[in-house]
Structure formats: structure tokens, C-alpha cells
Predict the structure.
Amino acid sequence: MGQTTHQGKGVVLSAKLVAASASDLAQIADCARSAYAHYVERMGQIPAPMIADFPAHLADPQDHVDLIQHDGMFAGYVVWRLRPDDLFIDNIALLPSAQGQGLGRAAILMLQQAALSHSRTALELYTNEKMVENIAFYKRLGFVETRRITEHGFARVYMRCELQNQAGA
């Protein structure tokens, strides 16, 4: 879908989003478990991505399931869909070994490009209120908190990043 080169912390890295297939589902589920396992104790429950129905996402024509690749290797995944006025990120995760290298930021940049190319003016996502590192990360990327709700038994923080000012960039 997209490719970007991101420079940060003195390192230039190239990231790419590639459409997932059924043969990628086990790898995606393993990534979700390893990326979110450390939150189980803090949350007192299994995080939603660890029990997500990835085959259903892949089968749903409205959902996009993409692999996040670095140097041609699997580094993570993102599940997203277009809505009338935004691109909604349902789930994004990186392997623990791929975290802290700018790949999450690069993936969000590619999703911003996708949103703009589909005439959407914002990205929206949610994270769990106990995932304070994620909330801080998204705020650094320009997301603002829009609401906190309990949904499907999870205390979620919805965040939105308006893209109009970036359309000309």
C-alpha cells in the first residue's frame, strides 16, 4: 500500500505496508500476543488485540489488514478501515523487537497518506486507558483525546488526528 523512509534517532529506516493474506494470520496473531502480553497484569484482563478475530477482519471487505515490513521482514501489522470522514485504525502492533525504531511512526505516516489519498481528513483510533505509553505516543504524533468510554468491557480512550493542515505537505 505505502512506503516511507523515516529518519529519527539518527537512523534512517524504510517501512512498507503490504496487504496481508490468510497465510499471514498466524504471524499477526503471534505479534498481537507478544506486543500486548505485558499489559495483561496492568489491565487485569486480556487486551482486545490478543483475542481479535483476524480471519474475520481479513474476510471483511471494509477492513484492510496490512503487514508492517522493514527491510522486507515482518515487523508488525495494522487493521484499518475507511469511514465517511476518516480512516479508523482498529488495531496496530509491532513485534517487541521492532519497537522503538520509528516503525510505528512510519506506519502512522503511511496511514495519513492513505487517508488523504481517499479524501479523508482525519485518522481516528482507540487505545486502552491503562496503555499510557500508547496515549503519550499518539499525542506526540498529533492525536488529541476525544472521549473515554467503556466498550465491550474495555476502558477505551478514543483519539483523533486532523489532517487538513497536512494535506498540502
Remarks:
- Residues 103-117 form the longest helix (15 residues).
- The chain is about 25% helix and 40% strand.
- The first strand starts at residue 2 and ends at 8.
- The CA atoms of residues 127 and 157 lie 5 Å apart.
